[in-house]
Hints:
- The protein has helices at 4-24, 36-52, 54-69, 71-80, 85-99, 108-125, 141-148, 165-171, 175-204, 210-230, 236-259; strands spanning 151-152, 155-156, 264-266, 271-273.
- By secondary structure, the chain is mostly helical.
Amino acid sequence: MSLDWIYYAISWILLTWHSAWDAIGVPLDAVIGTNWAWILAIVFLVVTVRVILFPVFVKQIKSQRAMQTLQPKVKELQEKHKGDRETLQKEMMELYRKEKANPLMGCLPMFLQIPVFLGLFHVLRRLDPAKESKTLYGWTVDQFESASQAKLFTAPIAGKFGSTADELARLGANGTTVKVMAGILVLVMIGTTYLTSRQMILKTGWAEDPQQRMVQRLMLYGIPASLLISGAIFPIGVIIYWVTNNLFTLGQQQWVLRKFPPLVTNPKAGTPSRGPVQPAKTGGFLNRRKPVAQAPAKPAAPKVAGPKPGAKPANPKKSRPAKRQG
């Protein structure tokens, strides 16, 4: 199956945004060693894709909420069919079908972005001045040459950590600069990829379903670890796309989790409920303010019995003995 339609679509979005920044007045020449019009074109390629995929992201959140409400039932099935994995899988698939929940929906937005990533990877790899077909995928010769010379802090966006000496020479780049810039971006890409998965798992908790838990572990540890090796073959422009996409995801997830907080499942009742109310902070350094010492209470004065109604008041002078006269 030909993927040319993806390459044409990615090229069109890149060129459209580049032309838009040029029209606004962003300089095409390098400023601080960076061609900002091309960098912004890659950044807003992310924005374009994420806006298109926003309905899918909403479905992802709804599916995650549905999976969370099913956790008590999943746990009951696990206890009921303990040791019978085949029956357990059949029962859980029937439960998901009946409740219209999909455990793989959490990965759908990422899977839909794979063609975009591959398309950008292919397009940027073509930015080699030695290429003869410079007008492929709707590019003009001027646009091709401008993009092939685009840099991020003097490192070409078509360069990569594993670029050969011949490739660097054709791009007019310094090998050390490319390796340093690509290495920093790869580390940032790994860190932000880990944080996006960790953010969601910390808010929603680990799944009871073994299949979904395996997907969570793959997202949290497997993908970031694989980027340590595969990042060496990614052009710098592709890494910029990936990092921007991760930052967009972090912000979007934070907004959704704050606006629609996940339910907390009560393990005793087996029903979702709100999280416990946090006690109010007392202030002070690290919330360790010493309690204010209270003044000791004054002892109460003894009560004096009042005279009975109708009784004459006693005269204290009469009660004293009379003095003897000499």
